[in-house]
Design brief:
The complex is a heterodimer of chains A (483) and B (457). Chain A has 483 residues and is mainly alpha-helical. The N and C termini of chain A lie close together (8 Å). Chain B has 457 residues and is α/β, with parallel strands linked by helices. Chain B has 4 domains: 121 residues, NAD(P)-binding Rossmann-like Domain (Rossmann fold, 3-Layer(aba) Sandwich); 84 residues, Regulator of K+ conductance, C-terminal domain (Alpha-Beta Plaits); 115 residues, NAD(P)-binding Rossmann-like Domain (Rossmann fold); 98 residues, Alpha-Beta Plaits (2-Layer Sandwich), CATH 3.30.70.1450. In chain B, strand 20 and strand 21 form a beta hairpin. In chain B, helix 1 crosses helix 14 and helix 6 crosses helix 14. Chain B is globular and about 65 Å long. Classes of the chains: A mainly alpha (483), B alpha/beta (457). At the A-B interface, helix 10 of A face strand 2 and helix 2 of B.
């Protein structure tokens, strides 16, 4: 491990990312909402911290090793989350405590969308914008963005990229060069965002809301500029636009890339992960809508349909927008929605959760064991599409699943030990580790009532979920630090 | 450039390494997943698993918009079929293939565009053989590289006490030489490059790269070190492809012995060669070496395909009294290890091969590329086109050309004539200009110099 090289990259990244505080600063100036000083201070602080840590080691150029990659990614997410909290603390309004500010910032960057702020509408315009922007930056991954815009990361870029991107098979690149791959991903991400923003605007949102919600929709984030989330607009058209774009953002971006390259959409259906994703999503929608209809939660079947569809996709992709108080829906529907968030989006998408491909592999592996009981000496490869998946990947998926469940259990118990009721503790951990956002019980609307130790546990859960367990946990093993 | 490399063997790996550092889009194809995983971890490239000659594998590797395909799998047949498939199905513009079997190479008609569409054939064994041949013809040289069809050569030598020029300024070089001319292109002192100027003083132990017309080379070398007697008695360890080729081209002028471990192979080599003595035995066997008068041997050159065996047998031969020992070393780390140690010259086959491939990757009209010092430096021969308005070099004197730092123009070949560059030499259109870059990362600037402006069409 070379701390100098890690420090150099971190300093550089911080310096570059301090400029993401410029747009909210401009918004603050334009809106005259009094938060400009907060953003200017945060910008100056970040820039100088980055610059000062980069300056003494600027000549320590060295290729990043595998281990350095993990350290850089985890450190960068942690440091950026901390620094991202500055405007929330510095601004006169909301003037959050440090715990709250960090929770809000982590929740933004990890695209969770859980908030501790109660009167969102009352916030300064620039703070509102800043929250949406945090989600957008975190969506495709800040490291991926860095790799795209900073070509000098070079080979080390692959180590970072692998530590950040979700999914079990991280070696597949869209293009031979990592920089080009990262650029391609961001181009797709950007075009989806623009398309989404335009659609919202045409459907009647104000320009500001359209941009803000496009940011958090395509990032599968869940922050909104209104307390009532998407429900504020009360427009089925906007709900359906959100459904479409959340669904698209939950698809593996390499499929979008291939479709764009070949000018054909046949590639989607040929992908088994996509087919499984569609299958899962439709079952969740069906169960929710039918559940709402038969329990007569809504008087009109149209409401049941629209709300059920929206909520199923929003929770299923781990976005976490709400049009209705789904936490007050009948228990079975609420809990089955929460469980659907464990699956989340496809690998290589902006969604959270375990990822569809992993579930698919787990199911196939389970079926294989059953077949083995019938034919004990049969050779049964695990296939995805027509390709056999190597046993290494299958093992890694099992390991991932085991760690996911174990981390979940530990954090659930820890939260319950702090005195929360079981439903709140369970749903809060689930909502955070899956990067979903809203939970059930007292964390249905927001996390303002959560106590401080609980918030810290949940911050860890969000980072754990976003960096897919391994990247974060590997730093906690003694073997990693041994020389 | 988008380049597909077929085969992740030694050549494929080295090429991928060299090219991926230069912002090319590289895709490597192989049948061995572990090789690919290894490459993918180290380099910024894409890898594809599969049989290299299959069209679907080529398509997955992005053959439809690839600029170049380099087929270097260990099968001649796969390489040839892959090039055929790439041309017929994807119209890949440049196809380079490694073909080793002399049985194919002796029929050039096979490789015309109408038949097997291969633009460039490379045979690493032949390149390495030529490389060693030139070293044997120039005793004392560390490296001898050809330009302009052999009219100009770049030679690396280590300066020694006793060389007439050592301890003097460079500008006196051409006064020392009666009539002949040479230009020092680069000097490496303790591993660091220094830009040679007229007032630079050559110190003992400097590694000096100079360019001269081929027939003047012995004379220039004599300036830098005591003239060495030509070699007479040679021993090659290893009777494989390289050893056999070397022996057959040298056996008429030198006394050549080959030591080959494998009895069957030794018998076959002895049948192929006429004047060479083929010894069956272990090249690292002290008794065998002593029996064959190792102390009177001029050159002991180990060319088996085993790095460790080559290094050890060369070291042993040196200790037993061989005048000069060379070892063929594939692994780059080993080359550094033995460099300027007991082994006089470490020959890296990748270095000898990569230049041929780089020639086709370079933009502008570049005819020869030699990669030097493990790829850190490069010597290239580029053709100047256009006139003084469209070209940045034509019609200008050498001193007026804006060369990037660490780059120097060494010689110019105009038709049959070799001109050693002076500060006032004016470059004409169609001149072959030979440049030396001590820092390869400036190659883009040099390429740009030799690209003709848009106005010239």
């Amino acid at each position: 491990m070379s701390f100098a090289a890690v420090q150099r990259i971190l300093g550089l990244l911080l310096t570059v990312f301090s400029f993401t505080l410029v747009p909210p600063f401009v918004v603050a100036l334009a809106a005259q909402d009094g938060a400009a000083v907060a953003f200017a201070t945060a910008f100056a602080l970040t820039l100088s911290v980055g610059f000062i840590s980069w300056l003494p080691v600027r000549h320590k150029r060295r290729e990043l090793r595998l281990r350095d990659g993990f350290v850089v990614v985890v450190m960068f997410w942690t440091v950026l989350s901390t620094i991202g909290a500055l405007p929330f603390v510095l601004a006169d309004d909301p003037h959050l405590s440090i715990t709250d500010a960090i929770f809000e910032s982590v929740s933004g960057l990890t695209t969770t969308g859980a908030t501790v702020i109660t009167h969102i509408e009352g916030l300064p315009t620039s703070i509102l914008y800043y929250r949406q922007q945090l989600q957008w930056l975190g969506g495709m991954g800040i490291i991926v963005l860095a790799v795209a815009v900073l070509p000098m990361l070079g080979i080390g870029g692959m180590q970072l990229y692998r530590a950040e991107t979700p999914g079990p098979m991280k070696d597949s690149k869209l293009t031979p060069r990592i920089t080009e791959t990262a650029k391609a991903l961001w181009y797709i991400y950007l075009s989806l965002t623009i398309a989404c923003g335009l659609a919202y605007w045409l459907a009647g949102m104000s320009m500001f809301d359209a941009v803000g919600h496009a940011f958090s929709t395509v990032a599968i984030g869940g922050f909104s500029t209104h307390d009532a989330s998407m429900g504020y607009f009360n427009s089925p058209a906007i709900d359906m636009i959100a459904v479409v774009f959340m669904f698209l953002a939950g698809v593996n971006f390499s499929l979008h890339f291939v479709a764009f390259r070949r000018h054909s959409i046949t590639g989607y259906w040929r992908d088994s992960e996509f087919r499984f994703y569609v299958l899962l999503m439709s079952s969740v929608i069906l169960v929710t809508v039918l559940g709402l209809y038969f329990t007569e939660t809504y008087d009109r079947w149209q409401d049941a349909l629209v709300n059920g569809l929206f909520q199923a996709v929003s929770i299923g992709t781990t976005a976490g927008f709400t049009t209705a108080e789904f936490y007050n829906w009948p228990g079975f529907i609420a809990i089955s929605l929460l469980f659907s968030s464990f699956v989340g989006g496809c690998a290589g998408s902006t969604g959270g959760g375990i990822k569809v491909i992993r579930l698919l592999l787990l199911v196939k592996q389970g079926l294989r064991e059953i077949t083995r009981l019938v034919h004990p000496s049969a050779q049964i490869p695990v296939r995805v599409g027509s390709k056999t998946v190597s046993s290494r990947v299958v093992e890694a998926v099992w390991g991932f699943f085991a760690l996911y469940v174990a981390s979940f259990t530990v954090m659930y118990l820890a939260l319950a030990a702090t005195g929360l009721d079981l439903m709140t503790a369970f749903s809060a951990v689930a909502a955070c580790i899956n990067n979903l956002g809203p939970g059930l019980g007292t964390v249905g609307a927001n996390y303002a009532d959560m106590h401080d130790p609980g918030k810290w546990i949940l911050c860890f859960a969000m980072l754990l979920g976003r960096l897919e367990i391994f990247t974060l946990l590997v730093l906690l093993t003694p073997a990693f630090w041994r020389k | 450039m988008k380049i597909i490399i077929l085969g992740a063997g030694q050549v494929g790996t080295t090429v991928a390494q060299n090219l991926s550092n230069e912002a090319n889009d590289i895709t490597v194809v192989d049948r061995e997943p572990s090789l690919l995983r290894d490459l993918q971890d180290r380099l910024d490239i894409r890898t594809v698993l599969g049989q290299a000659s299959h069209p679907d594998v080529l398509e997955r590797s992005g053959a439809d918009d690839a600029d170049m395909i380099i087929a270097v799998t260990n099968s001649d047949e796969t390489n040839m079929v892959a090039c055929q498939a790439a041309w017929t199905l994807f119209h890949t513009p440049t196809k380079i293939a490694r073909v080793r079997a002399p049985e194919y190479l002796s029929h050039p008609a096979l490789f015309s565009q109408g038949a097997l569409p291969i633009d460039v054939l490379i045979s690493p064994e032949q390149l390495v053989t030529d490389y060693i041949l030139r070293l044997i013809q120039h005793p004392g040289a560390l490296q001898v590289l050809d330009f302009a069809g052999g009219r100009v050569r770049l030679v690396a030598v280590r300066a020694y006490y006793g060389g007439p020029l050592v301890g003097h300024e460079l500008r006196t070089l051409n006064e020392h030489l009666s009539g002949a001319e040479a230009r020092v292109a680069a000097i490496y002192r303790k591993g660091k490059a220094i830009q040679p100027e007229g007032h630079t003083v050559i110190e003992p132990d400097d590694e000096v790269f100079f360019l001269a017309a081929s027939n003047n080379i012995p004379e220039v070398m004599a300036e830098l070190r005591k003239a060495e007697k030509p070699f007479r008695r040679l021993i090659f360890a290893g009777g494989g492809n390289i050893g056999r080729r070397l022996a057959s081209s040298l056996e008429n002028d030198y006394r050549v012995k080959i030591i080959e471990h494998n009895e069957e192979q030794a018998r076959r080599v002895s049948e192929d060669l006429h004047h060479t003595i083929v010894l069956q035995g272990d090249a690292a066997d002290e008794d065998l070496l002593l029996e064959e008068n190792i102390e009177d041997t001029d050159v002991f050159c180990a060319v088996t395909n085993d790095d460790e065996a080559n290094i050890l047998s060369a070291m042993l031969a040196k200790r037993l009294g061989a005048r000069k020992v060379m070892a063929l070393i594939n692994r780059a780390a080993y080359v550094d290890l033995v460099h300027s140690g007991t082994v006089d010259i470490a020959i890296s086959p990748q270095q000898a091969t990569i230049g041929t491939l780089l020639t086709h990757v370079r933009r502008g009209d570049v005819v020869v590329v030699h990669s030097l010092r493990r790829g850190a430096a490069e010597a290239i021969e580029a053709v100047a086109h256009g006139d003084s308005t469209s070209s940045k070099v034509v019609g200008r004197a050498v001193e007026d050309i804006k060369l990037p730092f660490g780059t120097s123009i060494g010689a110019i070949v105009r038709g049959e004539q070799v001109i050693i560059a002076h500060h006032d030499t004016v470059i004409e259109s169609e001149d072959h200009v030979i440049l030396f870059l001590t820092d390869k990362s400036r190659i883009n600037d040099v390429e740009r110099l030799f690209q003709v402006g848009i106005t010239f069409l």
